[in-house]
Specification:
The protein is 58% helix and 4% strand. The protein is mainly alpha-helical. The protein has a domain at 47-85 and 124-181. The protein is elongated, with a radius of gyration of 19 Å.
Length: 186
């Protein structure tokens, strides 16, 4: 344990009344660095995803809207993850894995596109593929970056770094749920 690590919970200050506590044994600066890195990486990913979806909405409106909902669910999950910053033995809450991801237009009739995910009627198949690939690749890269950053700081803030692993797993579960709830043929 680092000699500068607090022996009691210390509060990290964030906007919007989010003030996670740093557990005893975690260096306050290191835990803060981890949290801030995750917030920046998530924000950049979310901005890029929303810009990408805006440019592809006309060609695949149903799937672009569906991916937009995933973006919102990821952000909701991130806020829940911050609220659950380790205070004892925190787990990623169900809000991260059930963020209300449903098709924006439930009446849309998807058209089968062979094995795999269906292409909703009116959506361009190549654009649907492009959006799907972008979402999966982007989340994989986000998970990788935040996990690597946390792992590199695990010695200074082991509990906080472990909490990042919970977030990365939550992102993966939410992505899997998003794919499972994909608009299906009637």
């Amino acid at each position: 344990m680092d000699a500068t690590a607090p022996t009691a919970y210390s509060r990290l200050q964030l906007a919007d009344e989010l003030c996670p506590l740093v557990p005893p044994g975690d260096d306050l600066t290191t835990a803060s660095d981890i949290l801030n890195y995750v917030l920046v990486e998530h924000g950049q990913f979310d901005d890029r995803l929303r810009q990408f979806l805006n440019h592809h909405y006309a060609a695949a409106p149903t799937i672009a809207a569906y991916a937009w909902e995933l973006s919102g669910a990821l952000s909701t999950g991130l806020l829940e993850w911050i609220r659950q910053w380790p205070t004892a033995a925190a787990q990623v809450g169900s809000d991260l894995t059930s963020g209300g991801v449903t098709a924006n237009e439930p009446d849309a009739t998807p058209v089968p596109s062979g094995p795999g995910l269906a292409v909703p009627e009116g959506d361009d198949p190549s654009t649907v593929h492009e959006i799907t690939a972008y979402v999966f690749q982007g989340i994989r890269e986000l998970r990788s970056r935040i996990t690597l950053f946390a792992n590199a700081r695990e010695i200074g803030a082991p509990t906080s770094a472990d909490h990042v692993h919970d977030l990365a797993a939550g992102y993966q579960r939410l992505l899997a749920e998003w794919a499972l709830r994909w608009p299906r043929p009637s």
